[in-house]
Amino acid sequence: MTAIASNAALLIIDMQNGINHPRLGPRNNPEAELRMAELLAAWRQSRRPVVHVRHISRDPQSVFWPGQPGCEFQQAFTPQGSEALFEKHVPDAFCNSGLEHWLHQRAIAQLLIVGVITNNSVESTARSAGNLGFDTVVVADACYTFDQRDRQGRLWPAQDVHALALSNLAMDYARVLDSAEVLAMR
């Protein structure tokens, strides 16, 4: 396995208060926040780059509508002064955000992606990262999603949605690892 680079960036996606809104429904990975917090602590201790991504919705009904408590970061994932913050209006953290430029300026070639929603912002961002040539790792147990209905009305459990999204990413875009594997490689 490839080691984790000394300047690998931990990219934390959309860990805002709104993601806990009950209307989003049942989710998987109930310990995902603990895994994210362990990785964040390790990155801070080693002084590796930490990048926080905040979704600023254009939809007034969104849990991430600006100016509302749901748009603010969860306390455990509030950026510290030395950590980068990028805002996005679409699922992909690279789209019109300046993230790619920021990473290239710092010669960061490896990204570890955690956060929410596995099959939305995490998947979209990881696909772009892979397409842009970054060595991309998605940390499976540090991401989660929600139950989802397909176009025919069938309800898919969050764990199945999560597994399929990670399988899609593992085909061409990213390595998919668990947090214990990542921490053992650093």
TrEMBL record:
Query: Which UniProt keywords are present, listed alphabetically?
Result: Hydrolase
Q: Does the keyword Cytoplasm apply?
A: no
Superkingdom assignment: Bacteria
Q: Which chain regions cross the lipid bilayer?
A: none
By its UniProt entry, which Pfam families does this protein fall under? Isochorismatase
Protein name per UniProt:
Cysteine hydrolase
- Does the entry feature the keyword Hydrolase, yes or no? yes
Q: Which residues form the Isochorismatase-like domain?
A: 8-155
- What CDD domains does the record point to? nicotinamidase_related (cd01014)
What are the protein's GO molecular function terms? hydrolase activity
**Which SUPFAM superfamilies does this one have?**
Isochorismatase-like hydrolases
